[in-house]
Amino acid sequence: MQKIYIFDSALRDGAQAKGISYSLEDKLHMLKVLDKAGMDYIEAGNPESNPKEKAFFQACSKIKLKNAKLTAFGSTRRKNIQAKDDAGVQALLSANTPVVAIFGKTWDLHVTDVLGTTLDENLNMVTDTVAFFKSQGKEVIFDAEHFFDGYKANKTYALDVLKAACDGGADVVVLCDTNGGAMVHEVREAVEASKKVVDVMLGIHCHNDAELAVANTLVAVECGVRHVQGTYLGYGERCGNARLTSIIPNLQLKMGYECVSQEQMKNLFEYARKASEISNMIFDEKLPYVGNDAFAHKGGMHIDGIRKAAGSFEHIDPSIVGNSREFLLSEVAGKSAMALKLKGQFPEIAKDNDKVRELMSKIKAMENEGYSFEGAEGSFELFVMKEINSHRPTFKMLHYRISDEPKQGNAFKSCAIVKLQIEGKEMMTAAEGNGPVNALDLAIKKALVDFFPTLNDVTLTDYKVRVLNTKAATAATVRVIIESSDGVNHWTTLGVSSDVIEASLLALIDSIDYKLLNIDKENS
């Protein structure tokens, strides 16, 4: 298998995405995750761009990476001076990384109108800068900025820039679709032309402005590129960069190249989530390979096909990338879906065709009322247990009341009073919260925590409300979905009512009940 070298620039390109602002600790954490994920190069910016970057490179001097080479990033020297006298070049050298990535202009428009210099001087800037870093014992990656736009505007000059980098001794020359607008056929043509003038390894760096970053990367590799740049989850400026969690499995599982080890491939699902958490971004569950929806089956015929032949409706075995298949229950799902759903936790029920049919019929009736167990695994498990009379609730809600009182200024604070029955005893507690749902959550846990201390670890991580019949206006039925976590496990529950508070309370009760149910399982 031919090796493809993976270059991740999440710590610089990814940090340019809207909504991402890495702290120093975030960057160090991400560095370790990307190294474990098997990246060959991790590019982290320029130490002199801001104090945080300088502190990062200083901290990196104490970290020994197992797989990746840390890479500093900067531009060619300024015009009309020598590289050794350029402050930016010296700053890049101060990073003390084994690899430097140098970007230079390949589009003649940028040379004349942005840099304000001659085409010949730009070639000198490229060769001189690359040669300087080679003289300092660095591995040099040259990023040909705006290459595909430059190639369309002036093919000869764009290729001359690549030759100038090779003349300076570049180890890798990377063709960059900086504006992200190149078409697949344009990438193919330009890569083939570049191969004729470049005698070192070629790389590819694509942005996703035309939704082609992954496709353009794959076709570049097909044409002979062996160095691939991107960001792990595709985060980046504007529409983002080429997403490596799609590129890596496509190259390795579909095209026969070697990118990462089998163990690292199996951890793709886990590492993707860690990268998302560090970036403080909501994870897109529809991402290929690593999203929870990537192997989720809903249609009855699809589910029946999977039951009979696992690969009949999946392009790979999800376990290869650390993912798993999921069967969604809905009005379009059939008995096979319910049987497969029950198989893991309720194997005896799954074998009872009459009971499976009865449960499926009940779910479809409930969905007609507004319920949807898609993604609400906690409530689904509780529903089945109630239907087969194996559910023993740990507490019962007897009464609740919500009130809102004005505080400072125009702010309101909600107060919840709840009366619960717990192990035959009645408990009444009250709590204030930021809104009625938060107040209810706090009041219920306050009553239960003496009996079940682990509830202190449970937090609500997401809360969603869906209006089901909008024509009914404020009398409409609503569905509330609550996601909860104890720091290790995550689960989702739902509630349906024409009263949004009641719907929220039903989802809350299911959430707590599900947690307590799993405590019993762990202790049994």
Alpha carbon gyration radius:
28 Å
Put simply, the count of helices is 19
Percent helix, as a range, is 40-55%
Q: Major sheet, described briefly?
A: 8 strands, parallel, barrel
CATH C-level class of the largest domain is: Alpha Beta
Structural class: alpha/beta
Count of discrete structural domains: 4
Amino- and carboxy-terminal Cα gap: 49 Å
Q: Give the strand tally.
A: 16
In percent terms, what proportion of residues is strand?
15-25%
> What is the level-2 CATH architecture name of the largest domain?
Alpha-Beta Barrel
- The side-by-side strand order for the widest beta sheet comes to 1-2-3-4-5-6-7-8
Q: Shape from CA axes?
A: elongated
Kindly report the average pLDDT value.
89
**Uncertain residue ranges:** none
What's the CATH topology label of the largest domain? TIM Barrel
Characterise the protein shown here.
The longest helix has 24 residues, at 500-523. By secondary structure, this protein is α/β, with parallel strands linked by helices. The two termini are 49 Å apart. The protein is built from 19 helices and 16 strands. It has an eight-stranded parallel beta barrel with strand order 1-2-3-4-5-6-7-8, surrounded by eight helices. Strands 11-12-13 form a three-stranded antiparallel beta sheet, with helices on one face. The chain has a three-stranded antiparallel beta sheet with strand order 14-15-16. The radius of gyration is 28 Å and the shape is elongated. It has helices at 24-36, 51-60, 87-93, 108-115, 119-135, 147-153, 155-168, 184-195, 213-222, 244-254, 262-266, 268-279, 300-308, 335-343, 347-350, 353-368, 377-387, 436-448, 500-523, and strands at residues 5-8, 41-43, 69-75, 99-105, 139-145, 172-177, 201-206, 227-230, 296-297, 326-327, 395-406, 412-422, 425-433, 459-467, 478-485, 490-497. The protein folds into four domains: 5-279, TIM Barrel, CATH 3.20.20; 296-368, no CATH class; 390-394 and 453-524, Double Stranded RNA Binding Domain; 404-451. The model has no long low-confidence stretch (mean pLDDT 89).
